[in-house]
Amino acid sequence: MFSHLLPYRNYSTININTTYHLKHVHITVARRNFKKMEPVESAANLRSQFHEVLRSRRSPLVPKLHILQTLPAKPVVEPLFQGIPVDFEVMTHYPKPRIPNFEALLNEENFYLITEGGEQGRVPVLVLSMKESTQSKRPAVVYLHPTNANKEYLRPLLEDYASRGYISIAIDSRYHGDRAKTCTAYQDALVSSWKRGDTMPFIYDTVWDLIKLADYLTERDDIDHSKIGITGNSLGGMHAWFAAFIDTRYSVAAPVIAVQGFRWAIDNDQWQARVDSIKPVFEEARIDLGKEAIDKEVVEKVWHRIAPGLASEFDSPYTVPVIAPRPLLIINGEDDPRCPIEGIDVPISKTQKAFEDAQLLNHFKVIIEPGIGHDVTPSMLKEVSDWLDKFLKP
Predict the structure, then answer these.
(1) Residue 303 backbone dihedrals phi, psi, to 5 degrees
(2) Nearest Cα to 6, choosing from 375, 372, 388?
């Protein structure tokens, strides 16, 4: 049924400036002094550096933050959308679980997880599970929404996973859903980050929340702490990628239409589609930098300002391989302009080498779906489901 999903195996056939990337790797390794380190040590060092970046722009922490705090929340009846999510069609037609009296058997939890001070430090969390279970501890899956969406948007997927024995979890990412007051909240936050440099709403701040979410999940008695998967689409897939990189408690990862080469895109003039997805911040930067048009210099300066290291030491060639040896599935579209497949040649090759060294090649899979742009398809969702089942289900 899914034979048209072709594993990406022969990376040498991609037309890519490999020489540049190898040179760039050498420079970065020398600057970070990773070359003499063992793989485990270098991974720990990179995680430590990224954690320092995350901590550098936290709002004042709430008292006794090492003690997890939650507050009750009500179900969201009319969730806020800031535009049309990238996978809107596939989600609206996703089938519901075929279980008699499913709604009566479903347990729903709504609460806020406090991750730091301030309004954005209240993370809205939705947890779905079945009330009756023969398992005292169940596997969990964290599913993360794309730009413009919210946790309620993922409910069909959460219900599906819950019906199959998972505890399924979703959150609103920063300035989305219940964390947004206007239909421009996310774009406004990106512009503010460029202007003020005090927040990191593009990827990083939500990754901080996901670290704290892992703290919470590993304190629950009904979850098997060794079986927590994380996945997401588009922006949610980027959140899953970076959360799996920084936090090894996420034991299986499956980012969808997310993994890309930010540095590669700048150097190969392939940044336009990604920039267009959050264009207001780049337009603001263009004006501030006195440019007539957005160019690669503007793009590089924006990434450095709103997500330090995203186009350098924390880019995919360095952070994706660190997920090994935990199971990792990467799914992209062949014609995706936001995540050009040529831009992931180096990270995929390095990640494959990491799994080879761990003698766990069956824990790594890349699927490039032919003829698909920046879209999520039913077959992609099925592949993610099969991947999580393979490594998380008993």
Answers:
(1) -60, -45
(2) 372
- The residue among 316, 306, 322 whose CA lies nearest residue 56 is 306
Helical (H) or strand (E) element with 369: strand 364-369
| Cα Rg of the chain (Å, integer) | 20
Q: Tell me the pLDDT tens digit for each residue of 308-349.
A: 999 999 999 999 999 999 999 999 999 999 999 999 999 999
Residue whose tokens read 């039913």: 378
SS3 59: coil
What is the full DSSP assignment across 203-231?
A: THHHHHHHHHHHHHHTT-TTEEEEEEEEE
What would the two tokens of residue 374 be?
């920046």
Question: According to the model, what pLDDT value does residue 65 have?
Answer: 58
What are the C-alpha distances in Å from 275 to residues 234, 285, 288, 346?
Answer: 14, 12, 17, 22
Q: Which amino acid is at 75?
A: P
- For residue 284 the two structure tokens come to 């603001």
In Å, what is the CA distance from 393 to each residue of 140, 170, 212, 227, 327?
10, 19, 24, 8, 13
What is the edge-to-edge ordering of all strands in the sheet holding 69-72?
Answer: 6-7, 364-369, 328-333, 252-256, 223-233, 138-144, 167-171, 122-130, 106-114, 69-72
User: What is the pTM assigned to this prediction?
Assistant: 0.90
> What is the Cα–Cα distance from 259 to 328, expressed in whole angstroms?
12
Note the pLDDT of residue 182: 97
What is the full DSSP assignment across 235-296?
Answer: HHHHHHHHHHHH-TT--EEEEES----HHHHHHTT--HHHHHHTHHHHHHHHHHTT-SS--H
What digits encode the pLDDT tens for the residues 1-56?
322 233 333 322 222 222 222 222 222 222 333 344 566 779 999 999 999 999 99
